[in-house]
Model the fold of this input.
Amino acid sequence: MVSTYRSRRVGPLNGAISPPGDKSVSHRALILGGLAEGTTTITGLLEADDVLRTASCVRGFGAAVERQGEGSWTVTGASWSSPAQALYCGNSGTGARLLMGAAAGQGVSVTFDGDQSLRGRPMERILAPLREMGIESDAREGKLPVRLVGGRPRGIEYRLPKPSAQIKSAVLLAGLGAEGETVIEEPVPCRDHTERMLPQFGGRLTIEPLGGGGRRLRLPGAQRLTAGGIVPVPGDPSSAAFPLAAAAIVDGSVVTLRGVMTNPHRTGFFEALSAMGADLSTVPVGGEEGEAIADLTLRYAPLTAIHITADKAPGLIDEYPILCVVAAFAAGTSRFDGLGELRVKESDRLAATAALLRANGVDVRTGEDWIEIDGGRPGGGGAVATHHDHRIAMSALVMGMATAAPVTIDDADMIATSFPGFIDLMNGLGAAIEPMATEGG
Ligand SMILES: O=C(O)C1=C[C@@H](OP(=O)(O)O)[C@@H](O)[C@H](O)C1
Ligand SMILES: C=C(OP(=O)(O)O)C(=O)O
Done:
């Protein structure tokens, strides 16, 4: 089934909403809960396709994962066993990569698979450190389906080749079951949700500063985790980015996002909005011991172009498509560097974002890992190819809220991988996102 949608300008957006639970934290809570002895309760879990796939994979290893009510789940860990069937991770890079690490640590044999997009994404970045740890795998050209061969991993010293929290977390999760210590050097820091959550499950880990803002993580091997009590999942800053972006480009808007996680490795988009001149206020509302949380209010103000250097990219890596849309409405030329990783996300997001903007009348230049956008008053009217990528779909729909002519997308279904309530929530703020047609069956 293909669902095409149209987004058109209707006036200012107003209101206060809570974004859904954070996707990164949701995956980790399920996986750590599945490894721990006893029952963990997770509240505010993101009930989106990517996370639900991880829930069923964790079940596939023998843990009990049960939905108790909206967003409220229990996970009772088990000694992991080798699943008879391949585990299907759907569209989720985080799910596949973190689960590979966890499975390697538990010594199980397992095959992971995913949808067409995930089958195209690089997995060698996980298989290489796992091989160093002594875990053999079978994969054609480093892509899914991947078969891991069970065995006892050994701790390694590993320097992250890129600032990827998925690689870092996979090595940490494998290290939990390893013989000996695992040491990870992280020259450029990236999101640290695994490190923050581990102690709640009795996990031991020390973090030392490395010169230049980096870190060295030391994780003892052979750890037995214990249930994490209640793990609250804060609001997802990457989802909050869409209504905030809409308020930033639609004149007269005032929108509040409640309970948004403000982990310093995830706030790059909010900092970029402020640097462009958006009137964004942040009121901390708690959560300091695990993940910080705040209410964010954005009042429309005219925007100016910015330059974001490569070292900042990990702090807003998933937000670049929507940031590029915002830049299209800012006076001047914006430039974003260090975007090579965008080429291996759910789609080639650098190419898909450039095409999205061009289809709506924006002048854009790209290189292998950068983009330049000439901002102004884009006319819109474009038909956007989403390449089955949720973030491209939501970015295009937000653009249509501010352009003279409506923006259409070829498929809204993938939005369900990270933000199932997106369309209703945006329309509740005053947007006009409407289905165009449904083809096939
Ligand atoms: O660890 C995580 O939860 C994530 C890490 C990032 O990927 P990389 O590790 O590939 O940078 C991000 O793009 C992804 O959406 C979620
Ligand atoms: C890149 C993303 O997710 P994943 O890597 O988990 O597929 C994303 O949600 O933008």
User: Anything to note?
Assistant: The mean pLDDT is 97.
